[in-house]
């Protein structure tokens, strides 16, 4: 058993007869009244995100997890297929388990949290940044240099990302997987 002081991003817990992953949390100590922890929980089984508030000192039932490196192989109508980089064992996951499936490129290595009780995969942790090539975008208009102006661009995985006006087709960009935002242009 853990308490609210052990809450951290990525922690998997039993809550309301389901398994949830904490995706955001905030410890709040108001000037009046007891402290509490405001959280956003994502259901591992359904992918639904809920908000919940735990009072300070509340006991939570955490799940023992083991993190293993897996390489993304391909995606088809059955799901997303991954291979363990050490044992070469392959697993298949549904899209609801993935945080940013649109940014997942074949060959990308991710960390998958596995429940040690029943060896079931709980969640996929993407690297903080992915490097992808821009395959389609409109050219920036001359004179359109308003502060923080951006345009949509499609990357090689098919995802659409808002990028600055100077990005062109064929450019290699780094994308923040947590927010799905453009981070920087890479040298070729």
Question: Could you explain how this protein is built, in words?
Answer:
It comes from Nonlabens xylanidelens. Its main location: cytoplasm. One of its GO terms (cellular component) is cytosol. Pathway: Protein biosynthesis; polypeptide chain elongation. One of its GO terms (molecular function) is translation elongation factor activity. There is one protein chain. The chain has 188 residues and is mainly beta. The chain folds into 3 domains: 2-62, Roll (SH3 type barrels), CATH 2.30.30; 65-125, OB fold (Dihydrolipoamide Acetyltransferase, E2P); 129-186, Nucleic acid-binding proteins (OB fold (Dihydrolipoamide Acetyltransferase, E2P)). Helices cover 0% and strands 54% of the residues. The chain has no helices and 16 strands. It has strands at residues 2-3, 12-15, 18-28, 36-43, 49-55, 59-62, 65-76, 79-84, 90-93, 109-115, 121-125, 129-137, 150-155, 160-164, 172-176, 181-186. Strands 1-6-2-3-4-5 form a 6-stranded antiparallel beta sheet, with no helix packed on it. Strands 9-8-7-10-11 form a 5-stranded antiparallel beta sheet, with no helix packed on it. Strand 3 (18-28) and strand 4 form a beta hairpin. It is flat. The termini are far apart. The relative contact order is 0.14.
